[in-house]
Amino acid sequence: MKKKPVARILKIIAKDFGFGKIEWDNNRKMKWERVKSDPFKSLIGTVLSARTRDENTSIATERLFSKYRGPEDLAKARVKDIEKLIKKSGFYRVKARRIKDISRILLKKYRGKVPGSMEELCSLPGVGRKVARCVMVYSFGRPAIPVDTHVHRVSNRIGMVKTNNPIQTEKELMKIVPKKHWILVNELFVTFGKNVCRPVGPRHAECPVRRHCDFYKSLKGN
Fold first, then answer.
1. Is residue 177 included in any domain, yes or no?
2. What number of other Cβ atoms are within 10 A of residue 112's Cβ?
3. Short-list 99, 133, 92, CA closest to 116
4. Is residue 151 part of a domain?
């Protein structure tokens, strides 16, 4: 597999989608500053996002935090009350129990604070690699590559990796993407995957990285 210009691809996508806080210094190194999200809201929101659409996650998260502010409130809440608020997210009974359990553990073990390490995050109920890495990136600004369906699809279509599942994709991206750029990958590829490199009907004519894309080159006539 021919090696891809990873940093170049990230720069092109970033520029195309107007990520204004991404800059390149005189040494052509990418610098990026973003507003960090509240760790607890980020954690619970990512738990709610499992197997549902983004719009459903947003509705459920907004409803939940309109009534409960943090782990202290949710640890004391009735599971049935949590279920009603997050029903839009799907699998709400399982998620409600996990949210309550997570809140209890945070209070008991971490004084109500969300831990920042991969190992500690993954020890929480319902928190896997993707959820943990999202919290690390979006709340703590720590280098990680959360891999969801968009990141998995985009990186394979372009030909950056050739993998069968998100875990393999994460491991391979960590090998080829410079660590200083890890924090960029999820947000850039999710935005790109929703708007251009869509699951069905990818917009090849609008794709700023098609010259680097194996999938585009494989199409008849390219």
1. yes
2. 14
3. 133
4. yes
∠ CA(73), CA(78), CA(84), 5° rounding? 100
Distance of alpha carbon 49 from the chain centroid: 10
CB 63 within 8 A of CB 99: no
Does residue 76 lie in a domain region?
yes
What is the C-alpha to C-alpha distance for residues 57 and 37, in angstroms, rounded to an integer? 16
CA dist 161 and 71 (Å) reads 39
pLDDT value of residue 16: 83
Q: Residue 124 above 90 pLDDT? A: yes
Closest C-alpha among 138, 188, 194, 139 to residue 22: 188
Q: Which of 138, 172, 194 corresponds to the end of one domain?
A: 138
Domain residue limits at 124: 39-138
Q: In terms of domains, do 103 and 192 share one?
A: no
Is 181:175 a contact under the CB 8 Å cutoff? no
Whether residue 92 sits in one domain with residue 67: yes
Kindly state whether residues 44 and 108 are assigned to the same domain.
yes
Percent of the chain with pLDDT over 70: 90
